[in-house]
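Translate sequence into structure tokens.
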Amino acid sequence: MKQIILDETENKILNCLKVGKSNAVRRETIAQLTNAHDRKVRSCIASMRRKGVAIISSSSCAGYWLAENDDEKKEYLKMMESYGKHCFGVGTTMRQELKNAGQMSIEELL
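Result follows.
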């Protein structure tokens, strides 16, 4: 298992988190306990996830927690992949709209 190196704020956030969904900690609470702004907390959590820390969140449960088991990790992964597909679809539509922005519609040609 590779060693994960966290900065000072990330370590403070990690110390706030508990294992398991039933122990979820709200972002506002983490910000208060770490004396960090909300944006910094979100940024650090994203960084920690990229480093391999299994920090879980869910739209059905307010807060963050450390994965209790592989099922929680799989559920989170499924949610993130679904969100990624949604974002890709929106991006594809926007790209098409930009491509078509300078084109005349069929109604304008008639």
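Note: The first helix runs from residue 8 to 16.
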